[in-house]
């Protein structure tokens, strides 16, 4: 590892801006670390403590600024009309070379339908600023004011999370729905609409993509630090939110809809909630090391609470009894041990999202058998060993159920028709179950995502038929035979397949012709597979292949070079011959005119028990 470097650019980072900037400020030093921020002194101190060297770079010049703006406005697809280009170049002159300003203004201009008057209004708005930070603040304010009414609370809601927090998209969407931010539309679920809201904010460069899933969907997001400061200041200034930290001597006066307890949760007193009970709608606790062994009386006064996130607090005694009296609650996340069987959960008739988990594996969480009978439930997540029972009545609102436990002691055939509209399902199997125990899965006509994991099971039987709409399937610890893959290969809409922890066992696998017609993303993680006899016919539209801890697999099938859709092979902890075969496919693809097949840099650690090979790293 070479020296570590700190490169400071006079702007805050955005993914798109850095993509453009990297062409002008290349950094090819071995082991370098690039950090981009305006808080130069803070980073200088950090760099000094870390033994890093500091390099300072410059703003964009006019040519670079114009290229970035025009690319942002036109999305690289067309050119601007002459009258708008003239105004745009004047706008660029006022942007002072700050990439974030340019990107935000560019996305704002892209929403104005080539209105010359509105472009001139933006030019007039930014013309008087001489300081880059003041200009940036003004631009953010303009972008916020231009948001449609339904997006403004969604954007400000990022302020409830601590700074630099990775926010999982699924959680964020559930919270937006619970808060009532989402306006219903015909032929779309509230979650689909909320996802459209998030994509709109991302397209406007107000929210950043942090991680993507294997199928390239947005998994988590973050807020640029200066955009986060904007949200935080605005919600505090307008009295919408209160932030509690360990430095607080007393709570802010007023009544707040959102309460974010970030450091020192014990400072949240009963008196505060007593005086703000008619206003408070949401409470979040982000303190990770807090253990509670007694009930809080603060819940008595929160009559109109909608969101209660206690997922990071380690509670000892099941569930605080006062929570069941929060009859307006729509989102409840609780981490606890013991039993909640005696809790009167049936009172929470408006509850949409319920998340229960144990904070230690030593104490399995015990749930009431009728927990899924709450009529408004949409999303439920429990620990793998907690939930045994489906609802007693048909539950049409339920979309997500994970995990549902099936045991060998249960002689029933599971009736999944009680949850006909499930879109996501996680099944945990423990003990030998009946061969036809899961056959009713085929009745879940809306199911798109299925996970099956086993514990202490020597073998299981796959259902004879899976739901026809199934797009994503994950199998873990199932120890199936590769011949069983023929059932999975017949799924007409399967796009993503993950096989983890010896989901299938055996040294040889030859897929049957005519299968996996829609499979685009394929992962095999921990397997004893040695010979994979496949060709392009078996995976005609495969885009991404990920192999992890496949020590026995010697090569990727040679015929994969003919899969013209294949764009990435990612290897992690595999043998060197597998790496060599992937590189051979890469070269063959290039010879055929395809580029970008092996484009990720992945560390490959070779096993120590291979006498003829040494540990090394490959860029593949």
List keywords for this structure.
26 strands; Arc Repressor Mutant, subunit A; Helicase, Ruva Protein, domain 3; three-stranded parallel beta sheet; 4 domains; alpha/beta; disordered N terminus; 620 residues; single chain; 16-stranded parallel beta sheet; 14 helices
Outline the secondary-structure elements.
Blueprint: E1 5-8, H1 15-21, E2 33-34, H2 40-50, E3 53-56, H3 62-74, H4 82-94, H5 99-110, H6 116-126, H7 132-145, H8 151-156, E4 167-168, H9 169-179, H10 190-203, E5 208-212, E6 218-222, H11 225-237, E7 241-244, E8 258-261, H12 270-276, E9 282-285, E10 291-292, E11 307-315, E12 331-336, E13 353-357, E14 379-381, E15 400-407, E16 424-430, E17 449-455, E18 472-476, E19 480-481, H13 485-489, E20 496-500, E21 504-505, E22 508-509, E23 521-525, E24 531-532, E25 544-548, E26 568-572, H14 576-591
Parallel strand pairs: 1-2, 1-3, 7-8, 8-9, 9-11, 10-11, 11-12, 12-13, 13-14, 14-15, 15-16, 16-17, 17-18, 18-20, 19-21, 20-23, 22-24, 23-25, 25-26
Antiparallel strand pairs: 4-6, 5-6
Helix pairs in contact: 3-4, 3-5, 4-6, 5-7, 9-10
Describe it.
- This protein has 620 residues and is of the alpha/beta class.
- It has 14 helices and 26 strands.
- Strand 8 (258-261), helix 12 and strand 9 (282-285) form a beta-alpha-beta unit.
- It folds into four domains: 5-145, Helicase, Ruva Protein, domain 3, CATH 1.10.8; 151-230, Arc Repressor Mutant, subunit A; 386-470; 477-620.
- Helix content is 25%, strand content 18%.
